[in-house]
Structure formats: C-alpha cells, structure tokens
Design brief:
Number of strands: 15
Largest sheet: 7 strands, parallel
Strand content: 15-25%
Oligomer: single chain
Structural class: alpha/beta
Helix content: 40-55%
Shape: globular
Length: about 400
C-alpha cells in the first residue's frame, strides 16, 4: 500500500495530532508500506520523516479565498507540485486533519484513488471547501467514540467512521527504575507529593481549575508541589488559530492566580519540556483538567504508561480511557472542589495502594499501544484500497472542480 499523507507542520511541539501521525506513518513504513509526505510549514520532525518516507513534498497551502488572487496562485502551484507523486492501484490519500480535506479530495480525484480523513478533534470551524472535501472521503477515522458522535451530529454518516484509539510508545514512557534518585535530581523532598500538568497553557485546558484545586489540597495540610509543563499558546477553537502573545498574558494570569491563592512557591512553570516522560515519572499524579470536549487525551496514556495515575475531567473521550477502576480518577469539569476531593483520595497511593502504578501501565499495554493504533489505521486504509475507488466523472465534476473554481471560502 502507498499512503500519501497530508500534514500542516511536522513538529513535536504542536501537540498530539502531529505525534500520532509520525508514529502511525513510521509504523506503516516498518510494515512495508510506502509513505509520501506533503506538508506546509517546516518542523523538527522532518528529519524523522526523511528516515522512512519515499518522498517528501512541501507546498504552499491547502485551500484559498476566491477573492484573493495570490492565494489562488499559491493553491494552484501547490497542486502542480504534487504531480511528481506516483499513485497506483494500492494508493490512498490520508489527511491528518479535516482542515486539509478539500486539497486531499482534489488530490484523490486527480490520482483516481480513495481519500481517508483522520478526525482527531471535534468539528469546530468550517467553510464550504472543507465540507465539500469531507463529503468526498471514502472513510473517516475518529480517535474516540465521543469524537465520532460529535461528527455524526454534523451529519457525517455513522457507518463511514471507524474508531481507532491513540497509542503511545511504551518503551519511552515507562516506570522510573529509581524513583528516589529521580526525585532527588529534581530537588523534590521525599515527603512532598507532586502533581503535574503536561500540555499547552490554554484556557480550554482548565488550568485555573487545576490551580484552585491544588491550592485547596495544600490548604488542607498536604505538602505538595504542582509542575506545569507546556508552552503558553491561546488556541481559538472556533477559528482554528493560535496566538502566542495572548498565551504569555494567560500564563501571567495563572501565575497571579497562584500568588493570590498563596501557593505561588509550590507552583513551578517548566515551559516546553521535550522529555515529558521524566515529568510523568517524577509525579504522583498527572492531571488533565480540560473544559472542552477533549477528543482523547494523549497525556493520559503517556502518564499511565509511566505508572502514574491520572485525574481528569469527565468530558469528551476521556472516560473512554479511564475505565474500570481508573474511572475513580474522573472529576466534574470546571469544578475545583470535585478536583480537590479526587486528588486527596488518590495522592497517597504509593503508601496506601503501591501496586496501582503497575496496574496503570498494564491498562495501557493492553489497550493503548502504538501497535494497536497502527493496526487499526492500517486495517481501515487497506479495506478502502481493496474496496476499489473509481469515481464517476459526473461526481468528480460536481464535487471537485466546481467548488474549486467558484466557492468563496477562507483558509
């Protein structure tokens, strides 16, 4: 099979979507499949893709505004650049984001091959081009059942959406061999409980709830420290855009909140951390306090693979990960009292329930490995290729060329 992959910026600093894609494509390559990458912005993962991709192609844009001539030119030149990609009977276009769906569908039409779209976030921001591209997909892959039904509510056909849960590298994310030495290297006293957050500093991640809940734990007499790892970037979900300037102001507001609550000395902002496994390993609990409909929550499976229990909002796809005994780690989104109570019930697990860390890891090994994720994606792509992909000329003209020429949409 030949997989033609569409990505925006192959970067390890952007988040789970980009990390999922490189793990999936690397896994497919290891299994003997051919991978071609198309991307727009440079990122630090390009060097990793170069190790296994058969071709790497940088283009200018995935869409255009009909009112802006320069965007149309850039879009046309982008289409022209990918004519060198050879597609055969076993080829398929795989878009890592629905924002690229229009380009992905046109590429699939041009090559007469099927198009599959990866749904890693809920439906947030649309225009006619993206909707037209989505309708041209033969199949969709959603990262959770919650995400699937978010899209079904947008009128995508339920039977066309397969659910494939994310997986994580359980070799990299593992239980610390010497927990005491690790704590010592971080200058954390033995009697201090460590709570961590890993992710972007963004209001929709619920960090105010976390700091308030943490402050309540401290005020109740627990000697604790809060580690916050991530870059400050405010993400406008309704627009699909990010703003680093507002992110810095938001970080300052979080620091002020910690000061106002009297816990500023116990809260440490680490900034972007590349070795997040060390953050999980040094922690007693990792918290994901999201306010938005978190599609999956990659942080959860990374932390648990390191033997660290997770406390997280009962929202989005999170309850699909924290099942069985681990559902005890769920709290009401946005409710600092509920969070504080859940933290207090779990925080002393090393003394009260010392096997919990190993059970966390076994839960991930059984359900959320990279192999299971690659297996799921591979099956969907192979099934689509085997089903055949010839499209009627009438459909191609109606759905592909007309919107390409006439729809007024912003990208």
């Amino acid at each position: 099979m030949h997989v033609i992959v569409l990505e925006n910026q192959p970067s390890s600093t952007r988040g789970g979507q980009e990390l999922n894609l490189i793990e999936i494509t690397r896994g497919l390559s290891d299994r003997g499949h051919e991978v071609s990458l198309i991307y727009i912005q440079e990122g630090d993962l390009i060097s990793e893709y170069q190790k296994f991709c058969d071709s790497i192609n940088r283009i200018n844009r995935y869409g255009f505004d009909r009112r802006k001539f320069n965007q149309i030119v850039d879009f046309l030149s982008s289409l022209a650049k990918i004519t060198n990609i050879t597609a055969g009977k076993d080829s398929v276009v795989f878009s890592n984001d629905y924002h690229f769906a229009f380009f992905g569908y046109l590429l699939a039409l041009a090559k007469n091959i099927p198009f599959v779209c990866y749904l890693q976030i809920p439906p947030l921001h649309f225009n006619t081009q993206r909707m037209m591209g989505l309708k041209g997909a033969k199949k969709y892959i959603a990262v959770s059942n919650q995400t699937k039904y978010d899209w079904v509510n947008l009128n995508l056909k339920k039977e066309k959406i397969d659910v494939v849960y994310n997986g994580t590298n359980t070799e990299r994310f593992n239980i610390a061999q010497d927990f005491a030495s690790l704590r010592k290297s971080w200058n954390i006293p033995e009697d201090t409980r460590v709570i961590s957050f890993v992710g972007r500093l963004d209001p929709e991640k619920g960090l105010e709830t976390l700091i308030k809940g943490f402050a309540s734990v401290v005020k109740n007499g627990k000697n604790a420290k809060l580690l916050i790892a991530g870059r400050p970037v405010v993400h406008f979900s309704d627009l699909g855009k990010e703003c680093s300037d507002l992110g810095e102001k938001y970080k300052q507001s979080l620091e002020q909140l910690a000061t106002d609550l009297g816990v500023r000395e116990q809260v440490e902002f680490l900034g972007h951390v590349s070795n997040t496994d060390a953050v999980y390993q040094v922690s007693d609990i990792t918290v994901l306090p999201s306010l938005w409909s978190e599609p999956f929550g990659r942080v959860i499976i990374e932390a648990m693979a390191c033997g660290t229990p997770v406390v997280a909002s009962r929202i989005g796809g999170i309850p699909e990960i924290l099942t069985e005994e681990f559902q005890n780690g769920l709290f009401d989104a946005g409710d600092e009292k509920s969070l504080s109570e859940t933290l207090s019930q779990t925080i002393d697990w090393r003394d009260e329930n010392p096997q919990l860390g190993e059970r966390c890891r076994q839960h991930i090994l059984a359900k959320f490995s990279i192999d299971s994720m690659v297996n799921g994606v591979e099956k969907v792509l192979l099934d689509v290729v085997r089903e055949g992909k010839d499209l009627p000329v009438k459909t191609a003209l109606k759905v592909g060329i007309l919107p390409f020429l006439f729809f007024n949409s912003n990208f």
